[in-house]
Give the backbone structure.
Amino acid sequence: MTVDDNTRDFDPDIVTDFSRRMSYGSYLDLDVLLSAQRPVSVPEHHDELLFIIQHQTTELWLKLVLHELQSARDLLRADRLQIALKRIARVKHIQKTLTEQWSVLATLTPTEYAEFRGFLGNSSGFQSYQYRAVEFVLGNKNRRMLSVFESDPAAHALLADLLEQPSVYDEFLRYLHRAGFSIPTSVLDRDVTQAHRFSPELVETFREIYENATEHWAEYEACEELVDLEDNFQLWRFRHLKTVQRTIGMKTGTGGSTGSSFLQKALELTFFPELFAVRTEIGAPAPAAD
């Protein structure tokens, strides 16, 4: 088929009658999706649409991240490590997209944002229940976060349920235990409603895996996938911080937080601390026996 006058003809079998067929728009429910951007500034500010779409697309990606991580957790519980790692690999690609997306919002200058920021009231990304759900699934639990969602029963129920469930890391450590690796009972029986806390004993377990990678390749690969996951999460947090600093400086957040200072503290939170601590020990002399 040739192109004449810079116009491409239809292929003969292209469907054009959707009176009784599912179309692209109906499958994706585009009427609903594309009508969900409702600026509140008066008069409507040109750049508010950017602000809304940035956050809505983030929530869509977070929905998929949560979907994949919950599946990875359940697969680890069933000893299906390779498929779990496939889920995590997909999450890593989504994380890169989410991090790059901050560069679009960073085109919003302080002057432009100030012209409609006041119309946002107390709405804030701090109130993203899906973001909190992702943190919970990765093991950074905080029961106090539930209070933010008391006015949203569905979000509150989701987070309350995830609070009581083991995290991806919990299930990975239990997998290692079933595979014959030494995992402390205190870790296996820990209160999963609490954030994971650093365990020195686990560092020695991961040292065994890393220093004998050929014999423990599947577990070694899993460790590195989890490290990538946390690395990407921290890069996203850092890019969030720098975008906020670029846009509002040191102003307080619309949701009542201290803004940049509050986001800075998030960089100190960790999901898999032993997987980073073991790097100091690899190749170092083994600890002396008592």
